[in-house]
Amino acid sequence: MSVAELRKSPMMSHLLDALDRGEDIGHYGRLTFAIVGHHFLGRDELVDWLTKDPDIDEGEAKALVQQVEARDYNPPSRRTILEWQAHQSFPICPTPDDPDACNPYQELPMPDDVLQDIEAYRERQFDAEDAANG
Questions:
Q1: What is the pTM of this model?
Q2: What is the tens place of the pLDDT at every residue in 20-59?
Q3: Contact predicate 102/92, CB 8 Å
């Protein structure tokens, strides 16, 4: 996968453009970028992009990428992105009033392993609710 693939998401394109300009995209912007980006970019390329943010050095970027890879986070939902955005000044989602914006699952072709992980989670959630109800 590639940066071109990430640019299919207006939110990710917004983050890429801000990083290209050397802007501080905030802690949650970097986290969002790393979580989504690790499914589309190699680890070195992801570190290179993150270090364009003046508030993170190479060691911190590598640690963030390693954490995201080790925990294999699925991309955050639109709701989570908007919650995270409320905790910082940089707008992760450039168009928060658009209900179709900033949903990585709608904007990007997610790898099969992400979709399978979500399906397995939903099955476990269903089973837990079923057991609790009866």
A1: 0.83
A2: 999 999 999 999 999 999 989 999 999 999 999 999 999 9
A3: yes
